[in-house]
Amino acid sequence: MAKKTAGHQCFHCKQWVEHGEAHDCWTTTEAALTEGLSEDLQDAYGRLRETAVEFGDQRIYASHSSIMFSRKACHFFVRPKRTYLELVIFLGRTVRAPQIKKVVASSRSKRAHIVHITHRDQVEAPITDWMRQAYELQDAPAARNRKLLKRGSRR
Asked: By the number of CB atoms within 10 A of the CB, which of 12, 48, 119, 124 ranks highest?
């Protein structure tokens, strides 16, 4: 009878971890998160990343199952899924548009706008405009952010 090796399946990433093996699924890379994507989704992610880099200085890093884009705080992130990229953009107001699947309050002053990207051609205005607005939102004084939020919630 074969002896079963001691270990466990990680609750988060579902990877098998042998007993005594170091494992930290919270530490990952962009490459690891995008390697299994279809060619269309990899192209779309490449375009999202190129667009974000054009905005200016920021930190781009992988965290658990998402790729974060941040300056002082995260302004948007990409969560690769099997059939689409889930782009979550943090804005100081609620935007209603066909591209936005859902809007969720993420703090008192910001709303998370969830967009599904399936092809590189979708990474254009108005999505890129919202990405830039999220990037620039951190430059605006807090009082202005609250005013934008109040104005956006009445629409």
From this structure: 48
Taking a C-beta distance cutoff of 8 angstroms, is the pair 87, 117 a contact? yes
DSSP β-ladder status, 85-91 and 74-80: antiparallel
Length of the chain: 155
Q: Tell me which residue has tokens 């807090």.
A: 142
Residue range 138-151, pLDDT digits in tens = 887 664 555 555 55
Taking the C-alpha atoms of residue 33 and residue 49, their distance in angstroms, rounded to an integer, is 14
Say if residue 70's pLDDT is above 50.
yes
Cβ contact 110:90 at 8 Å? yes
Q: What is the DSSP letter of 6?
A: P
Cβ–Cβ contacts within 10 Å for residue 50, how many? 11
